[in-house]
């Protein structure tokens, strides 16, 4: 049987003993985990170290939650600080009310702090995280389904969302456009677009994040126009529509300027890790080269010693031969000496005789 509408959950919270398990909170938490997981994979693909995205998210996520809540409370202050308002309700985040604009703005500040502490360029980190943010938003939007909030204009379309009446908060029952579903699907499309464009054009230096922002704002503008919840209007348009238009223009301008100033993609995204690893590999390579050189030097030294040993042996043999020749000559000289002496004596005798005759 075909459904004539999408049913809303009868309850948005289940109690496990004294502990409340809220569907809205679960959607936010799951969205954060999925975003960080995908961001980590993309960061490692870009040459970064695994775990870095999560380390910086420790700063970004709390800042983002505070920023999202602040934006909601400031732009929708009446239930908290208006007539018959309840200021303490501003801290009840589980009841819903997180503005994406404030979440991204203050979350970016937290990410900047984390990046600065790690010596990492903020644009590179934002590029790695961008598709994960879009998917995290797609998951987080289902929290509005659990809370039966932020729906659109009445409709009888087959995919209309059934909203239960609640006189306590002035909610009128009926079937409405499921704007939470529209935005969830739009965010999934944005994630796919960003991943494709990043691979196709090798975007870098913050342009991936800027593309995500521009694409999200495009969808948010027409989805916001369909919503019927109370909001401030400026020149006949909802405040969030103006915000989406302004942020869209800023994102496009950033993409154009960044492409001219820093084309291409960063080669190094985590200097301390990548350069340290390169130095280590270089040292290992140098050590291997040194080992080869030492082996060659040892061989050359052994050959040189062998040649010197051969030369010394030849010289020793030559010296021994020379000594043998000298000894032979001396022996011959000794044998011829008496003959020489006799001849001298005869000559002397003959001389003497001659002298007597004269």
UniProtKB/TrEMBL annotation:
Keywords associated with the record:
Cell membrane, Lipoprotein, Membrane, Transferase, Transmembrane, Transmembrane helix
Which one of the record's GO molecular function terms can you name? Answer: phosphatidylglycerol-prolipoprotein diacylglyceryl transferase activity
Q: Please give the chief subcellular localization of this protein.
A: membrane
Q: Where is the composition biased (Low complexity)?
A: 327-351
Where is there biased composition of kind Basic and acidic residues?
Answer: 290-320
Q: What's the Enzyme Commission number for this chain?
A: 2.5.1.145
Topology relative to the lipid bilayer, per the entry, is: Multi-pass membrane protein
Where exactly are the transmembrane stretches of this chain?
23-40, 52-74, 94-113, 180-197, 239-257
Intracellular or extracellular location(s): Cell membrane
Q: In which pathway does it act?
A: Protein modification; lipoprotein biosynthesis (diacylglyceryl transfer)
Region feature Disordered, mapped onto this chain: 272-358
Q: Name one GO biological process term.
A: lipoprotein biosynthetic process
- One Pfam match, by short name? LGT
GO cellular component assignments: plasma membrane
Alphabetized InterPro entries for the sequence:
Lgt
* Residues the record lists as binding a 1,2-diacyl-sn-glycero-3-phospho-(1'-sn-glycerol): 141
Q: What is this protein's function per UniProt?
A: Catalyzes the transfer of the diacylglyceryl group from phosphatidylglycerol to the sulfhydryl group of the N-terminal cysteine of a prolipoprotein, the first step in the formation of mature lipoproteins.
Q: Name the family.
A: Belongs to the Lgt family.
Tell me the protein's name. Phosphatidylglycerol--prolipoprotein diacylglyceryl transferase
This protein's species is Streptomyces noursei
Read off the lineage from the record. Bacteria, Bacillati, Actinomycetota, Actinomycetes, Kitasatosporales
What gene, per UniProt, encodes this protein?
A: lgt
